[in-house]
């Protein structure tokens, strides 16, 4: 096992009717900006619950943060933060709203002229203005981590940022919110969380027995709840396990002491930036190709996954590894997610090279554990994904 340090300062408030606890968590005398998305919270009752809980607190609102949060929109919110002396952000939404809030949190204290530099120059955020979240969509884990992904439509870029200053102070996780989430987003959440675990697990063995079991148990839980929650998003118990699995999949715990990959995410962000494909679906498109292309490097963990998660006990290490890849594709498809790039775009000419070039231009020429994925590999992996 590798050396590691672990600190996660986010307070989780989990369970039914917990949104009402908001007022206990927002600092006294705070001037709050409540951020939300395209309006789903006004239809499903979450907005009313938040507003009721904020009774007596001085707050402003900013709605309209889109999926794949857009830089230009976030700059509008940033202007409000500055004009109204906001000192606490409350994000009410899924990954996009929470990530957007993280960007605003960082940009509000950023001293440079161009806040986009935080992303393009990968400036880490050691301090932002504090933020809390009310999660409305289990998927990304952003409610308990210090990362964010921001899009700039103008330049077709989707870039990541992070730093210890971006952990939410608290996150309220009420699984009841899942009842109103559309099937497409539930499927996305399941696939995203599943891939988060894979990206931190599917490398090579380092004797991290507990981390492996943590990861396998999250994968098994997602597999178990998937058909239940897709069939009935109002099933509270299934929603609770789904929600907690998504959080645990990317709150830092399972990646401690182990090598991580993240190549699927890096390539996937390019596909979203170019074609607007939902984040989770880009992952489903790339996973099998990535693992097949890198079978030699990953086969031991793939075989372990096939055996422990999918019960495949027959065959050589390589045969089990390949069966594990097939099971993964079948799992994505069982969620109603198409797994080929050609299912999403008819544009094929030059895409693979474009993805490789864009990553290389940002210095990402050695992706994956041990830097095994070169631009030439990226090109082949994307090519295999049609
Ligand atoms: O905008 P509204 O009206 O709120 O509707 C949203 C949106 O259309 C809707 N929704 C959310 N909660 C709902 C609901 N509809 C009904 N009932 C509810 N309770 O769902 C749609 C998608 O929302 P979005 O926030 O975009 O989805 P998700 O949580 O999957 O977030 C995706 C974003 O997170 C980034 C992705 O790249 C993408 O931009 N990621 C962030 C990560 C992180 N910070 O750690 C890691 C991930 O790998 C990922 O990259
Ligand atoms: Zn993801």
Automatic annotation (TrEMBL):
GO MF terms held by the record: alcohol dehydrogenase (NADP+) activity; butanol dehydrogenase (NAD+) activity; metal ion binding; methylglyoxal reductase (NADPH) (acetol producing) activity
This protein's UniProt keywords: Oxidoreductase
Start and end residues of each Fe-containing alcohol dehydrogenase-like C-terminal domain: 188-370
Domain annotation Alcohol dehydrogenase iron-type/glycerol dehydrogenase GldA: ranges: 9-175
InterPro entries in UniProt: ADH_Fe/GldA, ADH_Fe_C, ADH_Fe_CS, BDH-like
GO cellular component, one term: cytosol
Similarity section: Belongs to the iron-containing alcohol dehydrogenase family.
Name of the protein in question: NADP-dependent alcohol dehydrogenase
Origin species: Neolewinella agarilytica
């Amino acid at each position: 096992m590798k050396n590691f340090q672990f600190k996660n300062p986010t307070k989780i408030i989990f369970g039914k009717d917990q949104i009402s606890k908001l007022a206990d968590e927002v600092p006294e005398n705070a001037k709050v900006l409540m951020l939300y998305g395209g309006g789903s919270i006004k239809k499903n009752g979450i907005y009313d619950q938040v507003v009721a809980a904020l009774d007596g607190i001085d707050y402003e609102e900013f709605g309209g943060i889109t999926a794949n949060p857009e830089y230009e929109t976030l700059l509008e919110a940033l202007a409000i933060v500055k004009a109204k002396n906001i000192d606490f952000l409350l994000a009410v939404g899924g990954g996009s709203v929470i990530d957007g809030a993280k960007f605003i949190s960082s940009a509000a204290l950023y001293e440079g002229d161009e806040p986009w530099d935080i992303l393009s120059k990968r400036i880490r955020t050691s301090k932002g203005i504090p933020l809390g979240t009310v999660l409305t969509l289990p998927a990304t884990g952003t409610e308990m981590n210090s990362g964010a992904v921001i899009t700039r439509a103008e330049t077709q870029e989707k870039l990541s940022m992070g730093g210890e200053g971006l952990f939410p102070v608290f996150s309220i996780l009420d699984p009841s919110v899942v009842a109103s989430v559309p099937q497409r987003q539930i499927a996305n959440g399941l696939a995203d969380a599943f891939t988060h675990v894979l990206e931190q697990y599917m490398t090579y063995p380092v004797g991290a027995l507990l981390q492996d079991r943590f990861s396998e148990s999250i994968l098994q839980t997602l597999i178990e709840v998937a058909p239940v929650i897709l069939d009935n998003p109002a099933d509270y118990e299934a929603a609770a396990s789904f929600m907690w699995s998504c959080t645990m999949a990317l709150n830092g715990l399972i990646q401690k002491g182990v090598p991580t990959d993240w190549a699927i995410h890096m390539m996937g962000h390019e596909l979203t930036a170019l074609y607007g494909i939902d984040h989770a679906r880009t992952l489903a498109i790339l996973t099998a190709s990535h693992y097949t292309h890198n079978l030699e490097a990953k086969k031991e963990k793939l075989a372990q996954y096939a055996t422990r998660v999918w019960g495949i006990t027959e065959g050589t290490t390589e045969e089990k590894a390949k069966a594990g890849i097939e099971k993964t594709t079948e799992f994505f498809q069982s969620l109603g997610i198409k797994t080929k790039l050609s299912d999403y775009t008819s544009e094929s000419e030059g895409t693979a090279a474009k993805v490789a070039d864009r990553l290389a231009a940002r210095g990402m020429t050695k992706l994956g554990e041990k830097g095994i994925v070169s631009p030439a590999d990226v090109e082949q992996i994307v090519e295999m994904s049609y």
